[in-house]
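WARN no homologs supplied; continuing
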Amino acid sequence: MRYSIRKIVCGILVASLTIGATGCSEKKEEPKKTVQVEKAAAVSDGELKADSVVVGVGGTKVLYQEYQAYDWFLRNQYEGLMTADVWNYNLGETTVGQLAVEDCLRLIIQIKVLNKAAAEQGIALAVDEKEDIDYKADQYLATIPPEVQQANGITTEMMHIIFEENEIARKMYDVVTGNVEATIDEAAMQAAKVLLYKEPANDSNREEVRAKVNTLVAEKANYTGNFYSFIKDKTGTAPEEVIIGKMDGRVNLVNTALTMERHSISGVIEEKDGFYVIQCLKSNTKALNKNYREQYIAEQQSSAFQAAYENYAEKYEVKVSKSLLAK
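OK structure emitted
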């Protein structure tokens, strides 16, 4: 279950949903197209019981019992590493625990949206898939002590629902991103690993920033340490180790990196978003290019899915119980 939930959280990377007292996923700005929004189910704002409706995603109702189960799954990942006191840690205007509530709600909303979208597209679990996922759910349930199950609303039926809906959400992710890899030009997968220093710039301060970075590069000639320590000493921030490649829009930066010798340091590189200085750590090797390809595919899949999810989510009004948010 840890893997299943983390797969959805890390793989989807959906656009944030602002959750208010009666939160709604509709955008405030004028929509580009007319979208018929499915009204959210009513939620309970009094004392919460197992069968209280705490979230409405369109007409789909999420009971407090289901929220409790998801909440336990997510918290259980961390309480094995840290004490339960972590949830009371104050972050200023909120606590770690309150952030956990909001993250759990976002996850549930995302799963429900994806399952509603899947139903519209006729995507469901085949009989053998359902049997397999239910078997895995039963196996996981057997590892949870009975008293923990009872305290957190975890039943066999609930476990089956959660596992099945997570699997359908995964299938939706695969449907949206399935063709991304086929569009990748293998010849363009040339990459370099670099230590990167950036000074952001815009039209109003470009010449000022250019002079600052030029001065910095000139000072490097008299510095006895390495590039990493030089940048950190002079700017207070360490350079970032990154893999960049041909598909990156920063053409000057990439072309410079791919022509540099290992461990060499560049001059000032200008791009629209600012000025860069880099040290080449490795360039255009088979293993590095493979890593870049995987990184690029993941980025493109994430981008494709975010766009698709936004289209799914705008069709459903979302409401969340005030009583749940107050916990």
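The chain has eleven helices and seven strands.
OK
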